[in-house]
Amino acid sequence: MPQIQQTQVRNRLLAHVSAEDFARIAPHLEFVELPWRHAFSQPNMLAEYSYFLESGIGSIVAPSPEGHSAEIGIFGREGMTPIATALKADTDPFSTFMQVAGSAYRIRSAALVAAIDESNTLKTLMGRYAQAQAVQSAYTALSNAVHQIDERLARWILMCHDRTDGNDISLTHEFLSIMLAVRRPSVTTALHVLEGNLLIRAERGLIIVRDRQALESFARDAYGTPEREYERLIGKMN
Asked: Can you tell which superkingdom this protein's organism belongs to (predicted)?
């Protein structure tokens, strides 16, 4: 099988690593298709593989012992999972899985850890990505505390739009309710607000962004800081 070329990858982390670091991990990369609900990792369990997304959207969900859950972050072709592996922390208490089907390059976690041990530049890049993801999670908590539900919905749609080709985003009411940590009727109400402002069109299992600039204005300060932090630390997300 021919070795993957760095110029062929869409994943922003793989694109930003040095040529030397890419040559170090490329022989271990395997391209895989990822269906909806594909599980990357389970709470407090070692993950055999680490994934660098090429397309689609992954979800990081924090579960409670009582069976409740809330999404604390998403990632697409700008990122990888699980971050715990990249930080040599082994496990974390989260569930990570695909919310929008796509594809990725996967690598055995042991091989990734070995490559990180051999390269300070790769270690730095993984640390910077972990920082960017931590900022996203922190601003998710802030947004849940201070913003109205329709503004929070606008934020999540913008974040998904950043990680999607085109304006059509496969988002179910179930996914949106987990994103927003609210019941599905509240999601429906918030969608009607955004539709009424001609920002999106909502169909069954699909959100169509109609006016990206106006959607950003509607979200106000709920959107933007984590995205700027990613660009500061790593580079352009797209």
From this structure: Bacteria
Kind of pairing, strands 69-75 and 49-63?
antiparallel
Give the residues across from 106 on adjacent strands.
30, 51
Residue 238, in any domain of the structure:
no
Q: Are residues 14 and 125 in the same domain?
A: yes
Exposure pattern of 108-117 as b/e (b: 16+ CB <10 Å)? ebebbbebbe
Secondary structure (DSSP) of 100-133: EEEEEEEEEHHHHHHHHHH-HHHHHHHHHHHHHH
- Between CA 27 and CA 5 the distance in angstroms is 10
C-alpha to C-alpha distance for 214 and 212, rounded to whole angstroms: 6
Domain of residue 174: give its range: 148-233
Question: In this structure, what are the phi and psi dihedrals at residue 186, rounded to the nearest 5 degrees?
Answer: -70, -35
Q: pTM of whole model > 0.90?
A: yes
User: pLDDT, tens digit, for every residue of 3-50?
Assistant: 799 999 999 999 999 999 999 999 999 999 999 999 999 999 999 999
Token pair belonging to 161: 């739009």
Let me know if residue 168 belongs to a domain: yes
How far is residue 86 CA from its own chain's centroid? 15
pLDDT tens-digit series, residues 169-220: 988 888 888 778 788 888 889 999 999 999 999 998 899 999 999 999 999 9
Could you give the number of structural domains in the chain?
2
Q: Are residues 156 and 133 in the same domain?
A: no
Peptide bond connecting 43 to the previous residue in cis, omega within 30 degrees of 0: no
